[in-house]
Amino acid sequence: MAPLSGRCIVVTRPERQASVLVSLVEKAGGRAIRFPVLEIRPLVTDSLKSIVGRLSGYDLAVFISRNAVEQGLACVHSSGTWPANLAVAAIGTGTRRALEEEGMTGVVSPDGAPDSAALLAHPSLKDVLGKQIVIFRGVGGREQLASTLRSRGGTVDYAECYTRLRPDSDPQLLLDAWSRQEVDAVTVSSAEGLANLDALVGGRGKSFLRSTPLFVPHPRVAEAARGIGVETVLETGPADADMYRALVAYFGHSG
77-89, pLDDT tens digit by residue? Predict the structure, then answer.
């Protein structure tokens, strides 16, 4: 029997990024419900254009996410090419793979958790005194990476190249499936996405969400899930393959 046969999994990744996990679930015999909880919208500002125009003057570029890779490089390629000697770092393995798919080599990324603390522990980011650093990211976000690099003597600029929005997703299909006791698990990729999901499903859906096994990529998201009362939270790792393996392992043991 296929490992996810008869299981219904909710995939909340942004619409354009959901296909890989959906395909993995379906190939394993499961049913996937797509319910995007984040919309990624490109952002091109004068500040971003200015940074892209002087990229060759930076010593290091850090990418926070796959979205940062996609949107940041789209902006770069619209007006020129990536500087050959500009060193590149990624917040985690998924972001590193996205950069490698774009032809970049020698990308620095942490071996451990996909977060700022792990990247900051990498030897190549210990000595940044006098270095010019640019961080490609969405609008807003945590400040730990930039503040620590500045405390180590680096100069840091943000290249904010996209914004994250809560989509106007209709939860009725999901609520109906929950009401029929068809939903076996929910997957989320960020704390922001979890907050959007909690808001989108409304009062009726909140009890369903809290009683459904929730698969998350990072301890910070797990903490947010427990904070809103989710009873069963499983940490998986950041990649679609990590999420898939965790689903198979969980349902293989839970019968």
Answer: 998 899 989 999 9
